[in-house]
Design brief:
Blueprint: E1 4-6, H1 8-16, E2 21-25, H2 29-34, E3 44-47, H3 50-55, H4 57-62, E4 69-73, H5 78-89, E5 95-98, H6 102-107, E6 110-116, E7 121-127, E8 132-139, E9 142-146, H7 152-161, E10 165-170, H8 182-189, E11 192-195, E12 207-208, E13 214-215, E14 224-228, E15 237-241, E16 245-249, E17 257-258, H9 266-280, E18 288-291, E19 308-309, H10 310-316, H11 318-321, H12 326-335, H13 343-351, H14 359-366, E20 373-374, H15 377-385
Parallel strand pairs: 1-5, 2-3, 2-4, 4-5, 9-10, 10-11, 11-12, 16-18
Antiparallel strand pairs: 6-7, 7-8, 8-9, 13-14, 14-15, 15-16, 17-20, 18-19
Helix pairs in contact: 9-12
């Protein structure tokens, strides 16, 4: 059987359909450990370096079981194609290589409907390679976007498929873990780009917002209320859609809260976050939290959506929401801090539009899962090592 290719969206579909495939990642062990394909469900995966197939072909081939269809992943495509040809030569019947390499998995966006009605439709755009979520809100023939990635064509195509014009794009904060797309979307579509004080003094071209500011569509539809929720960053925003959904950015996650140390001012920002958490706790328990990130696929519901009532979110994060003293909260944050990836400083410059990187550099910076949550990970690791 001839070697064929596949796309990142195909791989996501196979994995969520629980197809009997083997993902063979032929990058080196270091790159594989840093960032790899993940799925909502268990699946078969092997990491055998492309160089091993070059140097010890027979031994490497022998490690690959023949009972599964093989889907090969590499850095840029060429190595996967090379290994695929070797496997076909050795009698493997269903072998495909990932077009464009692992970066296409990193940039993949999966649209899923949260609400579809006559008045409006709300979509969650899941980015499996970054464990992040953005959102699209459509009403009439207009669309608002929240926390888009730099995969601009996806949003333009999505809006076109729904006969919508993008009129507004919002950033919940100045992102550190991925290169954001609001500035480019605004430039290409004429949409207004709104952001908080994180963007003041930058060259991002945003329009400022104020607390309790309300955004609307031209012909009815849901209202979008802006809440200033500083802490993860000083300019972090939360959006309340139709008094039903809370687009929480990196302030509140389903399984954690946003870490306030990424700007190097942990004490000051932790105080902001402490006060914000206390204010948010007063909101209606029935609000459905739509986070900017997830830690693991086990946070998704049965429809593979990251959406949970605020009541349940507070219950899952009871340890944090129960803290009543500022100094105790700061200590909690410091106990759960871990080193941020060095790429984050460069990504912030890109999102402030004070530095411009070529496409290869953008791909390099944008690869890998987020590290934006304050979790018990660091503390647990320290206790384990102790």
């Amino acid at each position: 059987m001839a070697l064929t290719s596949y796309e990142a969206k195909d791989l996501f579909q196979w994995l969520t359909d629980k197809e009997d495939i083997l993902v063979l990642d032929v990058r080196n062990q270091k790159d594989f450990s840093r960032f790899q394909v993940e799925s909502p469900y268990p699946f078969n995966m092997l990491n055998i370096s492309y160089y091993d197939f070059m140097e010890i072909e027979d031994a490497s081939v022998a490690k690959v079981p023949k009972e599964h269809a093989v889907r090969i992943v590499c850095a840029k495509e060429g190595s996967a194609k090379y290994v695929g040809e070797i496997l076909v030569k050795h009698g493997f019947e269903d072998v495909r290589y990932l077009t464009g390499g692992i970066k296409t998995w990193g940039n993949l966006l999966v649209p899923k409907a949260l609400h579809e009605g006559e008045d409006y439709s709300l979509y969650q755009f899941i980015r499996p390679g970054k464990a992040s979520c953005g959102y699209g809100l459509c009403s009439g023939r207009e669309m608002m976007i929240f926390d888009p990635s730099r995969n601009i064509d996806f949003y333009l195509d999505f809006a076109k498929s729904r006969d919508c014009k993008i009129i507004k794009t919002f950033e919940t904060h100045l992102q550190a873990d991925y290169i954001a797309g609001s500035r480019q979307i605004a430039e290409q579509t004429g949409a207004d780009f709104f952001g908080g004080i994180d963007f003041d003094g930058t060259k991002a071209g945003h329009k400022p917002v104020s607390d309790n500011e309300v955004h609307t569509f031209s012909n009815g539809g849901p209202e979008v209320k802006v809440l200033l929720t500083p802490g993860h960053t000083p300019g972090s925003l939360t959006f309340i859609v139709d008094n039903t959904y809370m687009i929480s950015g990196d302030t509140v996650f389903i399984q954690s809260i946003g870490r306030p140390d990424l700007g190097g001012q942990v004490d000051q920002w932790a105080v902001l976050l402490f006060n914000t958490i206390k204010q948010l706790a007063k909101l209606d328990d029935s609000l459905l939290v739509l986070p900017g990130h997830y830690m693991d696929w086990n946070e998704a519901n049965k429809d593979l959506l990251f959406c949970l009532s605020f009541k349940e979110v507070k219950k899952r994060n009871e340890e944090v929401f129960a803290i009543t003293e500022e100094n105790v909260f700061i200590r909690y944050i410091k106990d759960n801090m871990r080193e941020q990836p060095p790429e984050y400083a460069l990504i912030r410059l890109a999102n402030a539009n004070t530095e411009q990187y070529d496409i290869d550099k953008q791909e390099e910076l944008d690869l890998g899962k987020n590290e934006c949550a304050a979790t018990a990970y660091a503390k647990a690791q320290a206790e384990k090592e102790g």
